[in-house]
Design goal:
Number of domains of chain A: 1
Oligomer: homohexamer
Structural class of chain A: alpha/beta
Low-confidence stretches of chain A: none
Number of helices of chain A: 12
CATH class of chain A: Alpha Beta
Mean pLDDT of chain A: 94
Strand order of the largest sheet of chain A: 2-6-3-7-12-11-8-9-10
Number of strands of chain A: 12
CATH topology of chain A: Arginase, Chain A
Order of helices and strands of chain A: EHEHEHEEEHEHEHHEHEHHEHEH
CATH superfamily of chain A: Ureohydrolase domain
Largest sheet of chain A: 9 strands, parallel
CATH architecture of chain A: 3-Layer(aba) Sandwich
């Protein structure tokens, strides 16, 4: 069993030098444990959280450097403490392991996708109770992570809570399983029903009528940002979760960073004006994370190469991740 | 009549390659029709919208590249669909023509201004029922567009709804009709009365006491951003429109992009902290556009050369335009 | 007494060319008077405001160019008028002097700190009724400015109102009086009691549990941004001031620019997502400035070298300063 | 025959508005003719130059936006005249057609490569005497363009002149035909012999010993930048061409923009210090273009998304193209 | 005579605080003396150098912020000492005065041009033996500065030495005296003969055949960068000066910063690849400055708003100015 | 002996994940071995190279982020192979260890300097034959590294070869041992004689007459960039080394990155136009490194926070380091 992770996963390209045994853990990079080939995986089986990098963005419709986010994300840990003052909780009381990155092929995207499915399956099998956090990568990876989850636990009915500016319901016959297609991919493969999908934050002139029609036909649930603001982000997410929980066993949370307004998140491949504020997204993620049926999540379409100097998007993506962890801890 | 547009207007410097006859129109650049010299203008006479570029910013007090916005604006169409999910409407059910740019002279600014007046007159005469959307350029163009509207329809009483950080009521005796003067220009030329002007969004330390005094003397109506937020943006704009509509025949909407907070719109010549959010401006424009007396509009003082890499300001300016169209469609 | 300023203070590196005697004062740089060695300090003794630059950031934990803010701040004056439209008041009816910068030593930080204490003492002694505005520099200067205030007026009990993402209560035994320590420094030196400190705006994963524990032990009052938003920024600040005023004679206001969200203030050494908006901070500062016991303030940790091209942070820092002045004028 | 281009090639996404029939052609964008579906391809058969965009960079090892270069390249035409003062020649005396872009698939890279081969074959068959200029895209496209040339003219022996920092001789068994492999790809497919390859400009710590060994085994000719500078760039290129011309029928020129020093070309995926200057590359390209056996060329690995604001790399890539044309005209 | 400067010239917007009488002058900003309205102009009559800002760029064909250079230039003084190590000379042994800026009108470009002519005339009359250094602004100012020189000294025959990528010989009938026309302006006004113009550094695809023809017809002398490099920059400039000196009384040196390669000078309105290096331009300017007949100079088309963060172009423009001064001192 | 490094040195903040035992070493980050607390230092005693980070820049006169270079430098390793094609040598045949960073104090600069001296002494004692490469940090560290070398080997006479734009001979009485003083510091402390210092690359207006006078009095040898170019960089460095070698036992090489032209190295605290090209500096460093008496070196004043997006300066600094290693290998 020892080698279950290798060679299927690559270790992170670097590791932070950790404080000595017994020293105070103050920052996130002191806390999250890289799971190297030489570790005993059995010991980490009960980790509260599993982080896996999914550095694939060659499947993105527009040019994307989202493949660089897993590394930028790990670098950003250093800027965050494990302690959350708002909730007075310390993540370091829980355990998190970093299992490294799904290996990718340079010119065979199908093989990349297969690797993600296989990795997701293995992780969900091995880490039975852990929350698996996939750090993308473009949005095509969501379909693969969910497929892996399904293979690992074929009896569980899966629902999806999505924060997104787009439907991501494009037809796959034209261009294959790109980042515009993950939700359709899951519907067509029969793994997730349209009516078990809840998409929050859509807005503006960034979807087509056809996609809306398809969404309606499939019973996909969606809430424009304007509607969400009227109801309240907390209330909207809460209501979605309640509905979803009544219908499925497991909820997968996917955060497409392009749901944010361009002023808050310039580092996404297709940044748009009129999106969510940071405060709104963080509140939504916190509410979602508190729900006991949310068992896996991903953060996608964050392109560090398009970020500005101060790295607002990389930092915000990392904050989304930590907020998810805090929410789980508060359950 | 055929040549009414030429040589008075220059064609856009480039045209998007359009989808084949009958193919689906998905993006804005597939939809808006360039009106070339060889087109039959009679056919487009009933267009719902007319877009005209007004690439003049050498009349700006501070160094401005707002002359580059018409081209940047046309480039940005590619990033927007014609379908608006919030309202479930598709702009492609309406018609829009792009008549190109008002020709400018490099060293004779008066001639530029005269060209704008002439173009505005011609457009308002030819496109009798269309909404004319002028893409600036600096704010001096507003006085010229309104003068042209007045020449085309001398019997209509014109009012102005303005989103701006500034009064734009500077004295013209010092430096001529610069971008600091359009409202005073219109008052002094007798075309628009001060009391028919409504300015929303002023704030901070960006106006002088003298200008305030002049505004009060002329009966100009203005609402600071703080007041607007207390009342609500929707309510404030609604009340202004109601008052205006009781007094005038035609309302001209002018959006100075510097009304926005610098975090949302870095690409303006004099960006300031403390301004509107994107959500506020878009809501205000939508409300305004729904009013049946609003017949023309402009977007000014957007300098693409000062924008950051992800082009938040160019995208937002384009979104303001599309939101205006959506509002008109919802009438 | 005439030379009290020199050689203890350096003149600003440059001076704006002022309008002729009698000419209209329109912009901030026309108004604030530099106090040169040849000026008669007695004449300016009753100035409403005293501006002093404190260009020290080599005491910052992370690499910081906050030492460049005093010069950038003076440059930015040119972009602001003295007239505030929201309140219909004109700062030029009050008087403000710029006494220049506290001299710094390149390699002896203790001497820098001593110079700040000495300058603060001298300023508070000389300008008895003026509000002293210190333009940092990193947050270590706050402890020194307050120590100087204490030396000048040893009988006054001092309280602190702080806008900050952090506690700034780190232990000084490790790394001396760095920018992470000013509040602890003041507590340990017995100048300000923990219970006389009110910190507003803390959030996220940017403090440690130990610091929270220390804050609690010392009775430091703090309000996370989330709590503040629930109560209202105005209400929170108002309540803090009321409590403080009941306990102390003098309130010192310190604004750490990192309290702002990274989207609004990229130009700080440790910018974070999830912080205050510009509107919130300006409202908080205005409320604070109106309180009669607030007699001094500073703006710290603004690094112009990390700002984006349009200088949003430098402009916002300057706006915070002007808002403070407006608040005082409204008393 | 009329539709030979479609649907195999996509038209450029936009077209410049051309001067009227008979008007002076001054700028490059006035001159190069887009070949649309409705054009008569027979008429353009004898064009001196054929431009084809090859917007593929998902086959790049590191994250690359080189797929954006064809569009950026066409935009940049506007900044260049057709007249070259150094040589007193005017390109407008020759003819150039823009046949659009090779269509790409989002998730099937093999299909992209096949499309490039097919397009190259078709172009070389149709435009028998034209020089075909491929605008990449990453370096993987070179192998495909050459394969197409080979299919169109199987009897011609092909040699390659390469400007590059790298060998591009990586093993394809690991990651398929990525941008690190084109030269090996051509050797292994038997289309170009190693000894018919001449690579100029390699330098520094950017290749491995293994690749050098393979190059030596295959008889690949290469000249480090240091050697080239000693001999002279003109002399080195001249000598290579002479040798090559004695061995092959057709010479294909490939310019990898990463051969340039990072100070001159920041907009490449793997920019390096110590590379060529602009003057050196332009001189080398001019010499190469004058040789009668050079019949096709490409420009690859130029990533406009990594360029600085003034677009030095995009402009330089365009200049390389025009210099090639000038050289051909001087034959 | 005392008020000759006012109101015709505006003082610089700010002045550096100067070292005390007798203190060491180390930096350029300690040395150059601003000439204020209250100064006695008679005292500065014999200054070796006169600096005048000419902040006009609304006459530029493309959007230009060159109007911001005079202020950026004065700011940059602080980064340079007066001592030149290469030549072991100290500029502070000479005298330089800063007379401020030519006043500009916002919307009347002709009046701006008239003001420049008037200012140039006045300066050349008053400062009979000084070298007048005009800091542009765009290239249209050169024609005006030379016209002023001609009016001041109508009997002197004037020649021009120009470093430029362009001829600047465009026809004025289309767009008036823009930045593309100064040389033609001077030829057509009969002030400078074509054969008394020497232009060094032209290159690439940035001029038209028509302009070349006009240059030839008028006998304008020009040397492409390639020719210049073959001969040597020093030798080329030397030979030009020798020829010019035999024909004219006074030589005016004009440096268009766009003569530089974009890698060295990104901050120009139309930056191009393939231009001069910094070393070449500085060498050329030094040789020119040493010639006794060179009596005035300008630096134009430097747009600080397009510069990168480290301000390479602003610094280089300032270095060009100082190198000119050093050359004069070495005469 | 095992703990000689700790606690005096901090480990690097992160470590690259290394290839498995026996796997090919291709990139620099696969090769350089971090020497952790648990390593046996005896084993690495004979390392060819020792890398030590010296992250101090609070002693810099101007605001500097050079303290960030050691981390940026280690990150940059990933972009370089160990194989140098120009020389056909592979660094991986030698050994290099990374001993981590000298620990710094936030507010006590003297203690930082003492730590550097102590670390340098320890390293030179322990690694008797290794070349010690110090990665700064600002230039003040050079004096400390050399003092440590002197303490370790008091009998060796030390000479310095310096690449710099500045003398770095400022008086320490004003501001202590800042980055403007290291050479004077060494002269005054009697450790290195002025006549044993050779400074290459000075240029322009960046030094004062007083410093030149001091240099001459102390017999410091210096060569302006202009002189160096006339003689040839290789020849100049060669001649300096020959002279130095006749006078001293050990040569210390110090590379101040500000010797480079701003076009090549924007990421330095005081970047200047007119400096060295990349090719010149690399050639100079290679020649120096080949000399058998060169036993230690440093790279200073590289500020990654001022670099542009593509990181030209960080990459070039790393290339300088690798070139030094190659030169040593070629001895």
């Amino acid at each position: 069993m020892k080698s279950f992770l290798y060679p299927k996963l690559n270790p992170p390209s670097f590791t932070w030098v950790r404080p000595d045994e017994g020293a105070e853990v103050a920052k996130v990079h002191d806390w999250i444990q890289p799971l190297s080939a030489s570790s005993d995986p059995e010991k980490s089986k009960d980790a509260d959280f599993v982080v896996v990098g999914v550095p694939l963005s060659r499947s993105s419709i527009s040019a994307s450097g989202a493949s660089e986010f897993p590394e930028a994300f790990r670098r950003a840990w250093k800027g965050f403490t494990t302690y959350n003052l708002d909730e007075d909780i310390d993540l370091s009381e829980m355990t998190a392991v970093d299992v490294g990155d799904v290996p990718m092929h340079v010119t065979d995207i199908m093989r990349c996708h297969d690797n993600i499915i296989a990795a997701s399956t293995a992780l969900h099998q091995h880490f039975e109770t852990s929350k698996v956090c996939a750090i993308g990568g473009d949005h095509s990876i969501t379909a693969m992570m969910v497929k892996g989850l399904h293979q690992a636990r074929p009896d569980e009915k899966i629902g999806i809570l999505q924060f997104d500016t787009h439907f991501d319901l494009r037809d796959m016959t034209d261009n294959g399983p790109s980042n515009g297609t993950p939700m359709r991919n899951l519907i067509e493969s029969g793994i997730v029903e349209g009516s078990h999908m809840y998409n929050i934050g859509l807005h503006g002139f960034f979807n087509t009528k056809d996609l809306k029609k398809y969404a309606d036909e499939q019973g996909v649930n969606y809430f424009t940002l304007r509607e969400t603001r009227k109801t309240g982000i907390k209330e909207t997410v809460g209501a979605c979760l309640e509905e979803l929980a009544a219908k499925v066993d497991t909820i997968y949370l996917t955060v497409d960073m392009d749901v944010l307004d361009i002023a808050y998140a310039p580092g996404v491949p297709a940044s748009t004006p009129g999106g969510m504020t940071t405060a709104e997204l963080l509140e939504g993620v916190l509410v979602a994370a508190k729900h006991p049926k949310v068992k896996a999540m991903d953060i996608v379409c964050l392109d560090p190469l398009k970020d500005t100097f101060a790295q607002p998007t990389v930092k915000l993506g990392t904050h989304v991740f930590l907020t998810f962890l805090a929410g789980v801890m508060l359950r």
